[in-house]
Amino acid sequence: MTTSKTKRSDRDAFPTATGSEDGDVEWRRVGLFVLFAFGISWTIGVIVSMTGGIGSESPTVFAGVRLWFVLVVTGYMFSPAIANVLTRFVTGEGWDGLALRPRRRHWRWWAVAWVVPPVLLYLGATIFFALFPEFFDPTLSAVGETLGVTQGTELPIEPRELALIAAMAALTINTAVNCVATFGEEFGWRAYLLPKLLPLGGRRAVLLSGVIWGVWHWPLIVLGYNYPETPLLGSLAMVYFTVVAGVFLGWVTLRGNSVWPAVIGHAAINANAGIMLLFTQNDPSRLLGPAVTGVIGSLPLAVFAVWLLVRSNVFSPPSSSSS
């Protein structure tokens, strides 16, 4: 006998990457979702461009917070979540498969999502500085510049101690706080788009969703976000990054049978991404690193993503998924 609790659990269960014919993809719903997500975010990108862009020319809204930041954090980043809701409402799909129910037996995937990204991120920065030692600043002079401290002025705390505090905060409270913002993206990309593409097969679904996620960033990249010196090449670099990051986030989503591991993993990436910039000097190209959005900075994440695509059975086609 099936209980009401079991029925509710089945309705919220996340699909598996079983793979099937391409015709089983609900392309109308996929198209509407992408239209809503891109329409909202790219319209906000136009508004940001018309109101001073990303930087000091954007008007201040309150307490030193600029308009571009408010628009991006609220409307732009939450457009995928809004697209999820709008698509379900317009198509009459209903609210099955939201992937919001926390599942205690999958708690370890929450921990994996919290811990693995910082490890890969800091490893990537280490590789970058090993290849380009001229960009490594062990004195952390950038910390003093950030605080507006002139040469000869004593800091109340050593730069290395401040960097350690910043890293500990990034690994803990900052990751938790960032979950609020990353939910806006993950409730769309991993909770809606990825399941809709799974009939293509797990590998193709996670790669295609990663490409779409990257292109969604393009207005911000063109405006100078992440790659201010090379926005056009940065647009391609962002797609590369979202593909490799999307493999990891898709993996923890499918393993954890919930969107929350992806929310946490995305938040861990965002919270820790800027720490290694404290050790940087001489303005290296953001296309390379040391941040995780650089090609070298993301190298460990890319290697791990390839390993997951090859080895993890959540991405396997039907012929091998049962093994």
TrEMBL record:
Q: Which Pfam families match?
A: Rce1-like
Domain of life of the organism encoding this protein: Archaea
Which keywords accompany this UniProt record?
Hydrolase, Membrane, Protease, Transmembrane, Transmembrane helix
Query: For this chain's UniProt record, which GO biological process terms are given?
Result: CAAX-box protein maturation; proteolysis
The molecular function terms in GO held by this entry are: endopeptidase activity
Residue ranges occupied by any CAAX prenyl protease 2/Lysostaphin resistance protein A-like domain in the UniProt entry? 176-271
Where is region (Disordered) located?
1-20
Where does the sequence pass through the membrane? 30-55, 67-86, 107-132, 205-226, 232-252, 259-279, 291-310
Protein's UniProt name: Caax amino terminal protease
